[in-house]
Write a structure and sequence with these properties.
Elements (H helix, E strand, L loop, with lengths): L5 H12 L2 H11 L10 H14 L7 H7 L1
């Protein structure tokens, strides 16, 4: 499989302009989703941000978030 010649340059720009957390969020948002998913990736991110902002309980584990996704 050949690599599109524009991709390495684009990857470099992304790395230079965005934080690791922002890049991880972008990857989550463009990753394929399950056909049985009830929410789009961006909707899920918004819900998780709201829940994280409530600080009423401990944070969800990565495993729990992955299962919910």
């Amino acid at each position: 499989m050949s690599v599109d010649p524009d991709l390495p340059g684009l990857a470099t720009k992304i790395i230079q302009n965005y934080s690791n957390a922002q890049i991880a969020q972008l990857i989550r948002m463009i990753s394929p989703v399950s056909p049985c998913a009830l929410m789009a990736a961006d909707e899920f991110e918004r819900v998780m941000n709201v829940l994280a902002g409530q600080n009423r309980r401990r944070a969800f584990s990565d495993r729990s978030i992955s299962a919910a996704r």
